[in-house]
Write a structure and sequence with these properties.
The protein contains 14 helices and 15 strands. It is an alpha/beta fold. The protein binds pyridoxal-5'-phosphate. InterPro entries: Aminotrans_3, Aminotrans_3_PPA_site, PyrdxlP-dep_Trfase, PyrdxlP-dep_Trfase_major, PyrdxlP-dep_Trfase_small.
Length: about 450
């Protein structure tokens, strides 16, 4: 056997995974890695958790799969109720899917079907931010503001009206307040230019993930966006696929800003890597309107199956019993302090940003001018590889010409301790020292 049939095998020296426990992963050669990014910011409760394994095994003993048009399952009903209890406002309805892209895709289709049902079919355009990442399926990719991913598919995606994302590091105005005013004005102009009566929804990640390296916004920006949506009669969709489920030190990142969306997309931390499960939550009114028009014309075979929902319930149980949301806030603040110490030591760190255990580090060639590394230098890949050589996993993103420099996310499981963070920082420190030796 050649062992080279895997489509996504990116390098010949990719380690083969063996097993994991807590914050550590081992490969088949016995090397240990500290998971400084929860895989793809997914394993929020850490690896190999006995409570989740037990709940999954118990569910498997009963039934793994049943189809939602033939049976309801108690675990699906219970998980939906738990999610409604954790969220705010009228986010009273939950639609389960299997991935973040599917959750965003469901949000797009619910918004469109809602306006069709309200006899406003012209409301079918979306406004989203640049940079942003909303997933890899055609609708979600259409919303995504990330040139390398968009470019090959531009001719066949739905596309969206792209507006600037607030950038509290590289803004050009004289203050953050002025910057926010300017970004909101540009957003309103874009809505009007596209035809406000044609906009179905504005979509954003309340705290940026991979696309922006933990970029945060301000309360006034969020309130301004909500006001724009209300003024022009469109919906506000928040993509919390990455920032939700305690990652930022609140159950959902929108809670930091006190602005509740009409539709919320969740994924990664909900299944915490144990099983694919994601959700779209929506205001009851939207679901009622669509229900009266014949029901939501959308669904996936595996959606809300018992094994997925039992996993989600066990993950929430662990998060509550181990108080992982408050740990995320507490340890996130310690991690931030330590990253800022590294920023004082290394000129290549231009900015540290984020909330809770969603922290991003932007690398720059010149700290004073904030000049990014040339894209061809692939700083993001170099630092990630240096860290991996030292047994530390971090999550990289490439430089976006003119929009963002190379950055890495430091997003360990929410179970992380001070000692774990100290280990991550020591290995990152060594990796940055080695990075500094590479001649441009
Ligand atoms: N939305 C955001 C904000 C994400 O970060 C991601 C994945 O990284 C997605 C959507 C897509 O999720 P998935 O990869 O599960 O389809």
């Amino acid at each position: 056997m050649s062992n080279n049939a895997l489509f996504y095998l990116t390098s010949d020296d990719m380690p083969v995974v063996s097993h994991a426990d807590g914050i550590y992963i081992w490969d088949t050669k016995g090397r240990r890695y500290i998971d400084g990014c929860s895989g793809a910011i997914t394993c929020n409760i850490g690896h190999n958790h006995p409570t989740v394994k037990r709940a999954m095994a118990e569910q498997l003993d009963k039934i793994a799969f049943s189809y939602r048009t033939q049976f309801e399952s108690q675990v699906a009903l219970d998980l939906a109720d738990r999610l409604v209890d954790l969220t705010d406002g009228d986010l009273d309805k939950v639609f389960f899917v299997g991935s973040g892209s599917e959750a965003v895709e469901s949000a797009i289709k619910l918004a469109v079907q809602y306006f069709v049902a309200k006899e406003q079919p012209e409301r079918c355009k979306f406004v989203s931010l640049r940079p942003s990442y909303h997933g890899s399926t055609m609708g979600a990719l259409g919303l995504t503001g990330y040139e390398p991913l968009e470019a090959p598919y531009r001719s066949i995606t739905i596309g969206s009206v792209k507006v600037p994302s607030p950038d509290l590091y590289r803004y050009k105005e004289t203050s953050i307040e002025e910057h926010i005013t300017s970004v909101l004005e540009q957003t309103e102009k874009a809505i009007l230019a596209a035809g406000a009566e044609t906009i179905a929804a504005v979509v954003l990640e309340p705290v940026g993930g991979a696309s922006t390296g933990g970029r945060i916004v301000t309360k006034r920006y969020m309130e301004g966006l909500r006001a724009l949506c209300d003024r022009y009669g469109c919906l506000l969709i928040m993509d919390e696929v990455l920032s939700g489920m305690g990652r930022t030190g609140a159950w959902f990142a929108y809670q930091h800003f006190g602005v509740v969306p009409d539709i919320l997309a969740l994924a990664k931390g909900l299944g915490s890597g144990y099983y694919p499960i994601a959700a779209m939550m929506a205001r009851k009114e939207l679901v009622d309107v669509v229900g009266r028009s014949g029901g939501f014309m959308h669904g996936h075979t595996y959606a809300g199956n018992p094994l997925a929902c039992a996993t989600g319930l066990a993950v929430i149980d662990v998060m509550e019993s181990e108080q992982l949301v408050s740990n995320s806030l507490k340890q996130g603040s310690y991690l931030r302090q330590q990253l800022e110490q590294l920023a004082l030591k290394y000129d290549c760190i231009g900015n540290v940003r984020g909330i809770g255990l969603l922290q991003g580090v932007e690398l720059v060639r010149d700290k004073t001018t904030k000049e990014p590394y040339p894209a061809a230098f692939n700083a993001f890949a170099k630092i990630t590889s240096l860290a991996k050589d030292r047994g530390l996993l971090i999550y990289p993103r490439r430089c976006l010409n003119g929009l963002a420099g190379d950055h890495v996310l430091i997003t360990p499981p929410l179970t992380v301790t001070v000692a774990d963070i100290d280990e991550i920082i020591t290995l990152l420190d060594e990796s940055l020292a080695a990075f500094g030796q590479i001649v441009l």
